[in-house]
Amino acid sequence: MDQQAYAIGVKGQKWGGAEKAQWFNAQKIKRSYQEEVVSKILGLKDRFELAQYGSLSYDVERYPLFAVKSLNWDMSKPTILVTGGVHGYETSGVQGAIRFIETQAADYAKHFNIVVAPCISPWGYETINRWNPNAVDPNRSFYQDSPAEESAALMTLLAGLGAEVFAHIDLHETTDTDNSEFRPALAARDAVEHTNWNIPDGFYLVGDTINPQDAFQTAMIKSVEQVTHIAPADESGKLIGVELAQFGVINYATKALGLCAGVTDAKYVTTTEVYPDSPLADDENCILAQVAAITGGLDYLLTL
Predict the structure, then answer these.
(1) Number of structural domains the chain divides into
(2) Local structure of 49: helix, strand or coil
(3) 273: domain CATH number?
(4) Chain segment 132-160, per-residue pLDDT in tens
(5) 283-302 helix and 214-224 helix, angle to the nearest 10 degrees
(6) In terms of residue numbers, what domain contains 267?
(7) pTM of the entire predicted model
(8) Is 4 part of a structural domain of the chain?
(9) Among 2, 213, 225, 248, which is least packed by CB within 10 angstroms?
(10) DSSP structure string for 104-143
(11) Which residue out of 102, 149, 273, 284 is catalytically annotated?
(12) Catalytic annotation on 149?
């Protein structure tokens, strides 16, 4: 595959403002954040606390940012953070976060304070995009003076919680469009070459290189195995070019890369990766896999 084969820009030259504007003007609304996400969140108001922690400047009415919190916070309980939709196009991350709240969160709230931000990038959700309108990846932007307002808003929310996060589960997908659209766009924007184009067929996790917490990751993999298949390593014994830490698990430097999973100092962190384009999966299966990852992780924490 020609990593630079992309319709915008000149090969070998990084994008400037004109190229980013051309990219933005090519984006189209493809689904409704209000109908598919906000309406479900508002439907939870009788059982959970809903907090609007901001709105995106691109359209403040269209893109309010919501977090859902368990009731009756108790500072003696550990606090759990679940995030979805950092990459708006990764649908099961958003819908899996909502499904967890709808079906499981109340039971776990007996033991934990729970805060869920189901859709961090609603413009990305509507346009099915990895980036925000400024061609910035929110999942590489969780650091001070972030260039992504989606990331900055979440950091402001977390700073105001008044509690340290004990565990953070960030819900993602790996899709075929990573190869057909998003990696070529990234290569063109930054004038770089990508050497790995493998997309794992199945679910996997990304832990933190510095703080991997192997048993935590194992528990989630075992839980998800009951719902969907775990991605096997490729012919090099890797997933997306990274050596396996254990079956179905690789590790990234979450803070150094500005990833959402590194946004807190939580002891237990992971990023889920569901593969919705697998012939062995469907939309519902992917949502259930996300929920199983969360519950598997929380069940492990309850044994500590």
Answers:
(1) 1
(2) strand
(3) 3.40.630.10
(4) 999 999 999 999 999 999 999 999 999 99
(5) 140
(6) 17-302
(7) 0.97
(8) no
(9) 2
(10) THHHHTTTSEEEEE--S-HHHHHHT-SS-TTS--GGG--S
(11) 273
(12) no
